[in-house]
């Protein structure tokens, strides 16, 4: 203010004298940016040049020509048809699908277990709270690799051999070679049962919508859970029996030294799934606990004062608010689980890293291509996961102002 | 029908009031927060509780709907005794509305959803009916136009009025106020007090912890002064302000009135 009043006379405003170029912030910033870009370009050029030189000296052809060559090695578990006559490209997909299988199942298990343990740790029941606390402290503080070794070598590899298998319900059995489950074999007419199941699901969704409308209109509650169960289980069940049970199970049978038939779950897969999901669940439990503790105490008091039971308070008031604290760190745990699945290589589960970055790289020697592809794959999985979680987080974010 | 059974319950307890506290004690660990509280609040009576911070006044009204547990003595609300019986606690909470210093609205729900949550889930009313009641009370606290906003979009005074409406939606017989204006800017205190005065004039039984002495003077039937966990003085406002008996009350009044 004083500067303007002291100005001598109104007239054409003379801009203040520009300082020397060196002292102008825009100029300095531009210089730093250019310098940085030049340095980076130089670094990349050096590396690329160096790699190209070395490859040329060792007579290694670069490029993805190996993709369609026969791999010549077996993979112990594949979700797509694969044999040692398949190509490296097919090995890539087999490994990738194995990793995705572990990641998806592991994330589901870890989330369910983590939420249970996290809520349990806040329970007013002394025993439950202590057990959940001990679980978290134990699993969070032991290295994951050690836990995988524990599950694989100490537990699953100590199971009895096929002849002394532990019999489980429904004709399943567990032994040192893995978990053997009966495989369903559809027979003619089974399509009708599936159709009945589909109709049951559609009907129960319709009932749920109708019940919600009616609840809003009249306040009457309708036992949606029970009708849904009846429609989804009893309707296809009735069709199934009426058509003379058109589904048989192929039970795993002990022949010679091993089980034949049925679905075999590798011990490596079990160890990896159990290890990854129990380990990650301990972190998720802490995140859930922090999220719930982060909801102000007044929220619970207000809900209680309104007469909401503790279960309803948790479901309608606390968890919806805790979720927005929980989601971002939960996303990192999902990404961690996916990336940690590459420890599979230590216990011999054929995941993406073990198959592609291990065997394929060794056999082809195409280190640069294989490593780049591996990085690209993990980057893609991670970005898709975080994109989904960010969308979900935005969906539940609080509206303020 | 409900009224007669409540009357019977009250008679069974030999109690003649909406809230009866007899010989209530409470400790936080070693700290004796409430010492031998005896108080009977009649139907439709308005009680204002004041006292220095830490005197136990908030704890006292929080004991009435079991946000805090008393350890000795008897509390009977609307003929129902507060014991550790969960059914009794639920019944009492449905009868008693509470307004907090920090509003405690549910920030993830719209104003209308805040008001409908408990009627729908606890009283099992239809959404349409709950919404009708909710809009009626929003009208009464003079913010019908804010129904679809979120609490974070409202001013403090508006939030506190929503909180009062939320408690009223459960159709309570008794309203408890725990320093309802202490977190508000001066110009918003009046809009909240106006709503509370209107509520008092409608015959609601009210217990209110507040330092708004003008409110106490105009609305209260009795003013209670608490200090160190005890009820030091209890009198109608005229007598309380003009002729306090205890030295502690005189000291407190001189501090809050002469500034």
Low-confidence stretches of chain A: none
CATH topology of the domain at 88-158 and 267-396 in chain A: MetI-like fold
Q: From N to C, what is the helix and strand string of chain A?
A: HHHHHEEEEHHEEEEHHHHHH
Shape of chain A: extended
What's the order of the H and E elements of chain B? HEEEHEEHEHHHEHEHEEHH
Please report the first level of CATH classification, the CATH class of the domain at 88-158 and 267-396 in chain A: Mainly Alpha
Q: How many strands, what sense, and barrel or not for the largest sheet of chain B?
A: 6 strands, mixed
Number of strands of chain A: 8
Helix content of chain B: 40-55%
- How far apart, in Å, are the first and last alpha carbons of chain A? 34 Å
Written account of the structure:
The complex is a heterodimer of chains A (401) and B (259). With 401 residues, chain A is of the alpha+beta class. Chain A has helices at residues 2-6, 25-57, 88-121, 126-140, 144-155, 190-218, 224-242, 267-293, 297-305, 310-340, 344-347, 352-364, 367-396, and strands at residues 166-167, 173-175, 178-181, 183-186, 247-250, 253-255, 258-260, 263-265. Chain A is built from 13 helices and 8 strands. Chain A has a domain at 88-158 and 267-396: MetI-like (MetI-like fold, Orthogonal Bundle). By secondary structure, chain B is an alpha/beta fold. The radius of gyration of chain B is 18 Å and the shape is globular. In chain B, the strands form 2 sheets. In chain B, strands 6-7-8-3-9-10 form a 6-stranded mixed sheet, with helices on both faces. Chain B has a 4-stranded antiparallel sheet with strand order 2-1-4-5, sandwiched between helices. In chain B, helix 4 (111-121) packs across helix 5 (127-140). The A-B interface holds A 215-221, 296, 298-299, 301-309, 312, 316-317, 320-321, 396, 398-401 and B 65-67, 90, 93-94, 96-98, 100, 102, 104-108, 117-118, 120-122, 124-129, 150, 152-153, 163, 166-167, 170.
């Amino acid at each position: 203010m004083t500067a303007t009043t002291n100005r001598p006379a109104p007239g054409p405003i003379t801009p203040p004298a520009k300082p020397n170029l060196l002292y102008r912030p825009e100029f300095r910033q531009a210089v730093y940016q250019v310098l940085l870009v030049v340095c980076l370009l130089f670094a990349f050029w050096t590396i690329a040049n160096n790699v190209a030189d070395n490859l040329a000296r060792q007579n290694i052809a670069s490029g993805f020509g190996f993709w369609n060559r026969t791999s010549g090695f077996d993979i112990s578990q594949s979700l797509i048809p694969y044999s040692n006559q398949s190509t490296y490209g097919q090995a890539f997909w087999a490994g990738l699908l194995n990793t995705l299988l572990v990641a998806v199942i592991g994330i589901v298990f870890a989330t369910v277990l983590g939420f249970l343990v996290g809520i349990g740790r806040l329970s007013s029941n002394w025993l439950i709270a202590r057990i959940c606390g001990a679980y978290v402290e134990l699993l969070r503080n032991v290295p994951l690799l050690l836990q995988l070794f524990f599950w694989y070598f100490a537990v699953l590899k100590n199971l009895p051999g096929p002849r002394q298998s532990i019999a489980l319900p429904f004709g399943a059995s567990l032994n040192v070679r893995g978990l053997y489950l009966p495989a369903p074999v559809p027979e003619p007419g089974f399509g009708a049962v599936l159709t009945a199941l589909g109709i049951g699901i559609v009907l129960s969704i319709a009932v749920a919508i109708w019940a919600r409308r009616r609840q809003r209109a009249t306040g009457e509650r309708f036992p949606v859970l029970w009708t849904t169960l009846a429609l989804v289980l009893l309707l296809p069940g009735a069709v199934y029996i009426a058509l003379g049970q058109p589904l048989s199970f192929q039970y795993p049978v002990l022949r010679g030294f091993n089980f034949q038939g049925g679905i075999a779950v590798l011990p490596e897969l079990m160890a990896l799934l159990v290890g990854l999901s129990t380990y990650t669940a301990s972190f998720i439990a802490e995140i859930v606990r922090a999220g719930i503790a982060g909801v102000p105490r007044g929220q619970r008091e207000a809900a209680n004062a309104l007469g909401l039971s503790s279960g309803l308070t948790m479901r309608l008031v606390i968890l919806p608010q805790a979720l927005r604290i929980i989601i971002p760190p939960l996303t990192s745990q999902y990404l961690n689980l996916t990336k940690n699945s590459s420890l599979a290589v230590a216990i011999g589960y054929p995941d993406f890293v073990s198959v592609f970055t291990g065997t394929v790289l060794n056999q082809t020697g195409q280190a640069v291509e294989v490593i780049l592809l591996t990085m690209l794959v993990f980057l893609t999985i991670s970005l898709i996961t975080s994109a989904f979680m960010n969308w979900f987080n935005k969906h539940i974010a609080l509206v303020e102002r | 029908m409900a009224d007669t059974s409540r009357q019977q319950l009250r008679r069974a307890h030999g109690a003649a009031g909406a809230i009866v506290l007899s010989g209530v004690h409470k400790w936080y660990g070693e700290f004796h927060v409430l010492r031998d509280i005896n108080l009977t609040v009649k139907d439709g009576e308005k009680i204002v509780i004041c006292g220095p911070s830490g005197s136990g006044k908030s704890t006292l009204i929080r004991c009435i709907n079991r946000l805090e547990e008393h350890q000795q003595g008897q509390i009977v609300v609307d003929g129902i005794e507060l014991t550790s019986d969960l059914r009794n606690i639920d019944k009492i909470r449905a009868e008693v509305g509470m307004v907090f210093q920090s509003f405690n609205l549910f920030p993830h729900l719209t104003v209308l959803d805040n008001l409908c949550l408990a009627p729908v889930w606890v009283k099992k009313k239809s959404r349409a009916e709950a919404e009708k009641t909710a809009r009626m009370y929003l009208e009464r606290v003079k913010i019908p136009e804010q129904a679809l906003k979120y609490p974070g979009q409202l001013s403090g005074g508006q939030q506190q009025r929503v909180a009062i409406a939320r408690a009223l939606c459960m159709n309570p017989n008794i309203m408890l106020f725990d320093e309802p204006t202490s977190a508000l800017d001066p110009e918003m205190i009046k809009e909240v007090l106006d709503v509370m005065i209107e509520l008092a004039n409608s015959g609601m039984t009210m217990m209110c912890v507040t330092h708004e002495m003008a409110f106490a003077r105009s609305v209260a039937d009795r003013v209670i002064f608490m200090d160190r966990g005890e009820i030091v003085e209890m009198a109608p406002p005229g007598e309380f302000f003009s002729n306090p008996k205890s030295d502690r009350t005189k000291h407190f009044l001189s501090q809050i009135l002469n500034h």
